[in-house]
Every structure is written in C-alpha cells, then in structure tokens.
Design a protein that fits this description.
alpha+beta; Lipocalin; nine-stranded antiparallel β-sheet; six-stranded antiparallel β-sheet; 4 helices; 15 strands; 18% helix; 41% strand
Length: 211
C-alpha cells in the first residue's frame, strides 16, 4: 500500500514497525528517540496529543494508545500500539472512507475486554445560543484545498463535506462532533479558524464547490 508520503509498506512491515514502540526502539532507533517521538509535543484536543509523527492518547481505557492513520483516494489505513499491553495492530483497506480507525479500535477494545459501545473519550451535550451558532457557521478551507461548510438549519448545526450533509452535535460553546466512518470527530472553532482532523482550516468567502 502506498501512503500519502508514498512509502510502500505491508501489514507485516507495519507490525514490525510496532516493535519500535514495544521494545525500546526495536534495535532500529535509540530508546531516547522513542521517548522523544511519543512525548506530548502539542495538545490537539482534549485528551489527545501530537508527538513527532504519532498521536498519543494517554488514557485509552486506562492505558496509553499511540496511533496514526489516514486515507487518500482509494485507500484508508490505521496503525495503533498499546505499549503497556505489548499490543500492536494495523488495519489496511483498499477503500477510501473505510472505517479503518473504528475497526482497529474495536479490535483493541476487544483485546482489553472493553465493551465495543464504550468510548474512551466522551463529550457531553451542550446547548448553543443563537450567537454561538452564528459564530461557527461559514465556509472553511485548508491549505490542501479541502472545503468544509458549517451551517444552521432549524436551530441545529450541520456540516457539508465530501458531498454529504452531516448532522453535528454541540459539545461546547464553540465545539461540535460529527460521525464519520464509525468515529466521532471533534471540530473546534477559534476566531476564524476550524481545528478539525488534525488540520487548521481558515474561514473564507462562500464558495459553491465542496470536496
């Protein structure tokens, strides 16, 4: 499978890469480099941090989860490690938009004997005011050209992206979640920026196209 960085790999190779996190570098890199890779370099949303090339969730049902995933046209992939449990997993698919993250997290929860309906991070419902809804509505665009439109309909929030209109749930004064590919994704609004899917999108003038 070719990733967005065009590194060719297989599920077996990715599991061997998991040894880097399970065995102090696995003889490939130094233990101190592993610690630097997985240090909390920046907080990207409640309970989730970014290291160097990996995402860290310190409390995944009481244990640390190290992961990364993504998708491009025709493929979706997810790589996860539970270092304290000596578990590594990978899910590779040949379908864009496949629920690779949800599938792999379900497998990890099964390994931990955690009910599959449970969420490691839960968000409480929040009642938005008219002003709250107005501040979030608009068209947002990333440097890659991805466009997300946030709009209000009958006092409910919706997100238009990839040709779909997705109902959103308010979880904070300037925060929404949307269900995609079996996972709830957090959207955080700050001034004229939308923080979503580990990217920052800027508010722009309304456009007629979407990605």
């Amino acid at each position: 499978m070719w990733a967005a960085g065009y590194v060719k790999s297989t599920a077996a190779d990715m599991l061997r890469f998991g040894d880097v996190f399970l065995n102090d570098g696995g003889g490939i890199i130094r233990p101190e480099s592993v610690r630097e890779l997985t240090a909390h370099q920046i907080k990207i949303q409640p309970g989730i941090y970014y290291g160097y090339g990996v995402i860290i969730q310190p409390d995944f049902f009481g244990t640390t989860l190290i992961e990364h995933g993504g998708s491009i046209k025709g493929v979706a992939a997810q790589f996860s490690v539970l270092p304290d449990q000596n578990v590594a997993g990978v899910c590779l698919t040949n379908m864009a938009g496949a629920p690779s993250e949800a599938l792999l997290k379900g497998a990890l929860q099964s390994e931990l004997n955690i009910d599959l309906e449970q969420k490691a991070i839960q968000y409480e419902d929040y009642e938005l005011t008219a002003l709250d809804r107005e501040k979030m509505t608009g068209v947002y665009k990333s440097n890659e050209g991805h466009i997300v439109t946030v709009y209000e309909k009958e006092e409910e929030m919706y997100v238009e992206m990839q040709g779909a209109d997705i109902p959103a749930r308010a979880v904070g004064k300037q925060s929404l979640t949307i269900p995609m590919h079996g996972t709830d994704y957090l959207m955080q609004f700050k001034q004229d920026r939308l923080h979503f899917a580990f990217r920052q999108l800027l508010r722009v003038e309304e456009e007629n196209n979407s990605f």
